[in-house]
Design brief:
The chain is built from six helices and 18 strands. It is an alpha+beta fold and 269 residues long. The chain has two domains: 2-102 and 258-266, Diaminopimelate Epimerase, Chain A, domain 1, CATH 3.10.310.10; 123-250, Diaminopimelate Epimerase, Chain A, domain 1 (Roll), CATH 3.10.310. It has an 18-stranded mixed beta sheet that branches. The N and C termini lie close together (9 Å).
């Protein structure tokens, strides 16, 4: 069967966030799916298969890190939609049935793909004990998304603080059910983006995720009221970086970005 590696939220190879993508006829057992994801060893590998016509979704979609299945993943959804469109397996808008509900993906005229995800709720919480020491930075504010994506959104004082983080991943692992998203407003108004972020997910086997689409379902409602705009641009990453364009639509958040296939081969398993 064909396996592809797609760099998501970028139009340049070797940037953005890489995801494995396999299109299947049906889902094999979970053990096999997890072994493949561990072998691919990227932050997520996506598995999709077509559904019967006339239903609420066109494709079933699941995502696995090297150690576990996750409820929501943005960059691997973008990667899957890119593969479906680039191979001719799908055209127009695609509806995915996933653990977090029905997700949409639409190919745009400019070559980007816009995804339709549920908006995450944000609950302000006190700074958890040990968080600032684990991050190595002082938190301005902390919000919990436990009822949705399971992350802590941590605002830092500025962009420089976010870019300079060198966390203690073992300490971060016990602080949230999925991950910690550090964020700050862009320092320069001419930077081309409105806010920056970095995402750390050691609890699910990923020390740092380069560009986390699902995190932007929380970052969009966090920053949009601050800027007084529903349309924002987020820049994420440490060693690898990418750009996520967000549009807040109440209980839905639209995520837009490019993707590029960098590897295509045969899986013998």
């Amino acid at each position: 069967m064909r396996i592809r590696i797609v760099d998501a939220f970028t139009d340049q190879p070797f940037s953005g966030n890489p995801a494995g993508v396999l299109l299947l006829d049906s889902f094999p057992d979970d053990t096999w799916l997890q072994k493949v994801a561990a072998e691919v060893n990227l932050s997520e590998t996506a598995f999709a298969h077509p559904l019967p016509a006339g239903g609420e979704a066109d494709w079933a979609l699941r995502w696995f890190t090297p150690t576990t299945e996750v409820d929501m993943c943005g960059h691997a959804t973008l990667a899957t939609a890119h593969v479906l469109h680039s191979t001719g397996a799908a055209t127009g808008s695609i509806r995915f049935a996933a653990r977090c509900g029905i997700l949409g993906a639409t190919a745009e005229a400019d070559g980007t793909i816009t995804m339709d995800f549920p908006t995450s709720s944000l609950t302000p919480v006190p700074v958890p004990a040990g968080l600032e020491k684990a991050l190595g930075a002082e938190a301005v504010a902390v919000h919990d998304t436990a009822d949705h994506i399971g992350d802590l959104v941590v605002e830092l004082r500025d962009e420089t603080a976010v870019r300079g983080l060198a966390p203690d991943f073992a300490a971060l692992k016990v602080l949230s059910s999925r991950g910690v998203i550090a964020t700050a407003a862009a320092e320069r108004p001419d930077s081309g983006y409105d806010f920056v972020s970095r995402g750390f997910f050691p609890a699910v086997g990923i020390d740092e995720d380069p560009v986390t689409g699902s995190a932007h379902t929380a970052l969009a409602p966090y920053w949009s009221p601050r800027f007084g705009r529903d349309d924002l641009v987020g820049f994420q990453g440490g060693a690898r970086t990418g750009v996520v364009r967000t549009r807040l639509r109440g209980d839905r958040t639209l995520l837009n970005g490019h993707a590029v296939t960098v590897v295509e081969g045969e899986l013998h398993a």
